[in-house]
Each structure stands twice: as structure tokens, then as C-alpha cells.
Amino acid sequence: MLNNVHGILMTNQPGYNLKELSSIRSISSVPYGGRYRLVDFVLSNMVNAGIVDIGVVLQQGYQSLLDHLGSGKDWDLARRRGGLRLLPPFSMTNTQQHNYRGMMDALVGLRDYLDEIKQDYIVIADADVVANIELEKVYDQHIASGADVTVVCSASYTDRPGYATYYTLAEDGSAAEIVNKPVGYESLNVYVVAKAKLIELVEYAAARGLYSFSHQVLANKDQLGLKVVPYIFEGYVARFPTVADYFAKSMDLLKKDVRDDLFNPAHPIRSKDRSDPATYYGPDSKVVGSMISDGCVIEGTVENSIIFRNVKVAKGAVVKNCILMKDTDIGEGTNLNCVICDKAVTIGAGRTLSGCEAYPIVYAKGARI
Q1: Cα separation of 44 and 102, whole Å?
Q2: 361 strand-pairing partners
Q3: Under 8 Å between Cβ of 50 and 3
Q4: Contacts of 266 by beta carbon, 8 Å cutoff, 6+ apart
Q5: Residue 315 pLDDT more than 90?
Q6: How far apart are CA 150 and CA 148, in angstroms?
Q7: Domains along the sequence of the chain with CATH
Q8: DSSP 216
Q9: pLDDT(67) > 70
Q10: Can you list the alpha helix ranges (DSSP code H) found in 1-70?
């Protein structure tokens, strides 16, 4: 258990285009998989590793995240000492307050907080990564390799040039090059670093107005004399730069091997607890190859879809290849294909709406069609 490690979560990453899904919330609180938010995965990874002091760096659109995390009790982080700490946005290097330009910009603003950390090591992670990572193994490699910074990487790519950072390996397993083009291994923006070394790098960045950890600090590892070592994660990874990515990675959950990898009982993914009644299936309902959450009323047909809590699908309605979030109501005789509905969307009777996998139709929270 990583009792000597502190966690810092970054909750709003630039470079996303999730349109209606992220217009009212930070990326980290985008719903996923029927009952989760994106933040649940990295936060659970930390808790599963025994990290119980975790700071969550807030940014714009964080009300939804506050409602979801609450006191942290659902992750066993509601504690008198340590536990979950919500860090309000404040940028010392950017005149536009609440709008961090990058990870180092945020850490410079948190300089006093870093001094207060009692643990000797820190795991810093973006909250946009869906993966079940055993951080104990990452930490063990960090210590054994003598690295200044260990970065978790994956052989799977997002296929979005310029979105991510990529690492090639030297013969000794350390990072040879850090580039923006898809070669080698893609960074998941999960880092292990000693507290003293991180403070040293934050002061270096503050003195030079640098704001990106990967592009402006780690990319200059040779000049700084840093030993950067990738940890190659071989499990399933989902990231969501675009709506099409969100749709495709959500549909991946309909594959048993993906679910088995992500939702390993030995390393559970925790989320906000809710007590909903069991889902009701009408006598004429039909459900094929779908994930249905609690509290739903299904009287029509649902195929190859992900249905969140308290969704209603009326008689004669056909829902195929769709993602319907909490409290969505589908009217009688309506036909949907490749549609994403945010929370509390109402689609009236007799509608026919069809997108495609590359361009799913997206309706914002509370929309009425």
C-alpha cells in the first residue's frame, strides 16, 4: 500500500471537442458506462493503491464534479486527516483566472499546497483516462529504476495527431525521445515523482513562464538532467478527444473482455452510490447486447446500447446503437440509431433520428425533441 504517496488529480484537460457533453461540465465529470464519471477511474486507481490523501484541482465548469465527489465518502476519503481535498482554481502565471493552460501552470498556482504535502512521493494524473491501472506496480518500477519521473504509457493510440505526447525507449528502458507524433508509446499523463523533485521542477517552470509538464519540462529532460522512465501499461485504455471517440469507447463496454479488464473485482472502480429500484421490463420489451442500469422502465426494444439510470423507453420505441443518460425519456414509436442523449432529454412519440458511428447525433442536457 502506497502510504508514502500523495495524489493530485487534474480535472480539466485542453484539446477536447465533446460539444454538448462538456459544455456544462468539466471533462472529468462526463458520464460514462451507465453509472460512472470519467474521474471515477483514476480516483479509484489511487484509492485501490492505498493513496488516501488526494487533492482534486478544480477548473471551469466544476459544479457537476462537486456534486459527484461530495465529501469523498464513496471512495472512503471522508477523513478527519487527509482524505479528499478540493483545490479551487487559481493561476499565478495566467491573467485569466480559473483557466490553467497546462499541468505546470496549475502546479505553480498550488505551490503552497505542495509544501504542505507530508508524503515523499506524488502521483499526478489527468482525470480523463479510463483504465484500471495498478499504481503500486508503477511506484515499484519508479523506485527500482531510479527515475526522476515515471510516466505511464500505452501502446494504444488515440489516433488524434497533436493531442497526446509519445515516448520512444532507449536500450535501458528510459525515454529516448518525447515527441508529439504517434511513435513508440502514448503518454496517459499519469506521473510518479518525488515531492522534492516536483517542487524543483515547479520552481523551474515558474521562473520561465512554462505551463506544460510534458511539452516544456519533460521534453527538455536532457538539459535538465532528468531520468524519465516510461511504465508500459498493457491493459485497456479509453480517452475521449472527440464525440466519435466517446461513442466508440463507450460501445467498447459491450465487449466482455473490455468489461473484465476495466471492472476487475480485485481493483474495483468506485462511483457515487445511489439506491435505485430494479429496472422494469415490460411484457413486450426486447433487450439485446446492451447495458441497462437500475431504475429504468423498458417497454420497447433496446439493442447494442448503453442505458443509464432512470431511463424510460416507451412501447413500440426502438433504440439501437445509442447512449441514453440518466432520466432520458423516449416516447412511443420513436426510432433512434447512433444517438447520444445527455441527462434528462425528452424525445417525443413517433420521432425518427439516425446518426452514424463517426457522427452520432448528440442532444444536450434537458433537450426536448
Answers
A1: 23
A2: 339
A3: yes
A4: none
A5: yes
A6: 7
A7: 5-262 (3.90.550.10), 280-363 (2.160.10.10)
A8: I
A9: yes
A10: 39-48, 63-69
